[in-house]
Amino acid sequence: MDQSAHTGVASGFLPWPTRRELTIGEVAERSGVAVSALRYYETKGLIKSRRTPGNHRVYPREVLRIISVIKVAQRTGLSLDEIQKYLAQLPDSGVPTKDDWTRMSTAWKAELEARIARLTRLKEQLDQCIGCGCLSLADCPLRNPDDQLGAEGPGPRLLDP
Where are the domains of the chain? Predict the structure, then answer.
């Protein structure tokens, strides 16, 4: 008996709760991530699919856990390149375990704390000279006489030491 006759599904796919693999549309629906983003994640090496004989992408169900990790990491401000470096450290299955999650989230907490500290400094110094010589000319002769900070390179030198 063919698969579609047995399940009543015209596409020939079993309903997703009973399958080990999901179509790209099902992954998009379950994860809340656009199909185009899933394709992009795949080109960046963040997730993997396989092609069916009909050249359709199918993903292991575990990809939903990986996408959840990606979404959390993005919310902490990590770039996809940074996320890829963390995911590359996972075992061959590429699916994070509880220990993997603890290790990654601990590192992300440290990065978040550093980002919060930078943003707090920015908030506190926002109305002051930032060391570039262009925004507060009256203050710069006191904080940056003779444009000494210019020798250190371009941009705001006092803002993010």
Answer: 3-126, 128-161
CATH class of 3-126: mainly alpha
- What spatial distance separates the first Cα and last Cα of the chain, rounded to whole Å? 69
Listed residue (30, 60, 29) closest to 42, CA to CA? 60
Task: Give the Cβ contact number of residue 32 at 10 Å.
Answer: 10
Q: How far is residue 89 CA from its own chain's centroid?
A: 15
Q: Are 105 and 134 in contact (CB under 8 A)?
A: no
Report how far residue 10's alpha carbon sits from residue 142's, in angstroms, rounded to the nearest whole number: 76
State both tokens at 107. 């590192």
Convert the pLDDT of each residue in 41-87 to its tens digit: 999 999 999 999 999 999 999 999 999 999 999 988 889 999 998 88
Burial class (CB in 10 A: 0-12, 13-18, 19+), 27: buried
pTM value > 0.85 = no
